[in-house]
Write a structure and sequence with these properties.
mainly alpha; Serine Threonine Protein Phosphatase 5, Tetratricopeptide repeat; 16 helices; about 80% helix; globular; MalT-like TPR region domain-containing protein; TPR-like_helical_dom_sf; TPR_rpt
Length: about 350
């Protein structure tokens, strides 16, 4: 049985904030409480409030501000000798590094966070940090290495009745099944995640689950309108909480759904929107996926084949450097689809 979802990253004077609080509101209140703690010489409280500030900035796409905030939170925690707070700051920094595509840094920071969480006796930050490591590996496409860790974390979350973490693990496992072609298993897991998130009032988790369900409806069932309806519901949740990254991925998925339906002009417009959003928040993985969708859409709309081939080649090189294996495979398939004609054209 799962209780109501909560946000353990909202600490100190900010524990009254909801998991569904608008990130703009979290940033405003967190900044106010942070300054109060700093003025009164309470580094432990400053570290805890600074964590919420860092996370709000990160989720709003304010990369430079988020980077400064998590580092300040870590310094305050170290000054206070608060090992668990140091772990939370490192978790935030590692999550930001993954968002920016700095995967080696993400592995290092999240690994340190897990170690400090265990040393500080905070099982929640340890779990979140291990989850961060699992997600980093999954995003890079290394499913064999992190699949077991996802399952372990899911079992631990179920045992503790932590709805938010259970939803995260279900969605991660579902995404791996979707990417390896097991659409039925992926749909069942996304569906369970959506049900748990809705009962626990976890809007963020619910929005991501709806996005996953929409993807399966589009790919497996060719149900374009059903998929678009789910994405509209998810978008409403994203906007209510100012979830910039989730909203951009929603728009990118809407582009995918429209592209599969042969509505290439509409897909182009959505990919262009998503690309602009990802670039504004320095989200390289999302940017690469939006670029791929846009290149394919433009090719379908009559773009010169040589230009398409050049764009895909540049994208392939970018992904090769970043280590995003699954995305690189997607580009390779696009090169097979559009490349031979381009070679003839040259």
């Amino acid at each position: 049985m799962y209780g109501k979802a909560f946000a353990p990253e909202y600490q100190g004077a900010l524990t009254t904030l909801s998991v569904n609080s608008s990130l703009v509101d979290v940033l405003a209140e967190g900044t106010e409480k942070l300054h109060e703690a700093e003025r009164s010489g309470r580094p432990a409280e400053a570290a805890r409030c600074g964590l919420a500030v860092a996370e709000a900035h990160r989720r709003l796409g304010h990369v430079a501000d988020a980077d400064r905030a998590w580092k300040a939170s870590y310094r305050a925690a170290r000054t206070a000798g608060d090992t668990a707070a140091m772990a939370w700051a490192l978790w935030s920094g590692g999550t930001l590094a993954r968002q920016r595509g700095a995967f080696p840094l993400a592995w290092r920071l999240l690994g340190l966070a897990a170690e400090l969480g265990e040393r500080g006796g905070d099982i929640v930050v340890r779990g979140y940090s291990l989850a961060g490591l699992a997600e980093t590996g999954r995003i890079q496409g290394d499913y064999a290495a992190v699949g077991r860790l996802h399952e372990q974390l899911l079992a631990e979350a179920r045992k503790r009745g932590e709805a938010r973490h259970t939803v995260w693990a279900l969605e991660g496992i579902a995404q791996m099944h979707r990417n390896t072609g097991d659409h039925d298993r992926a749909y069942a897991l996304f569906e369970e995640a959506a049900e748990i998130a809705e009962r626990a009032e976890d809007r963020r988790g619910h929005a991501w689950a709806l996005r996953g369900l929409a993807d399966i409806l589009s790919v497996r069932d060719k149900d374009t309108e059903g998929a678009l309806e789910l994405l509209s519901r998810a978008e409403a949740g994203c906007r209510a909480m100012d979830l910039s990254s989730a909203l951009a991925y929603n728009h990118k998925m809407r582009g995918n759904v429209l592209y599969r339906a042969g509505r290439h002009a509409e897909a182009r417009d959505l990919y262009e929107l998503a690309l602009e959003e990802f670039r504004a928040m320095s989200e390289p993985r999302g940017e690469a996926l939006a670029r791929l969708g846009l290149a394919k859409s433009l090719a379908q709309l009559g773009r010169d084949r040589a230009e398409t081939a050049a764009e895909l080649a540049d994208l392939a090189r970018t992904l090769e450097r970043s280590g995003l294996k699954h995305a690189r495979e997607m580009v390779a398939r696009a090169q097979e689809e559009f490349g031979p004609v381009a070679a003839v054209a040259r």
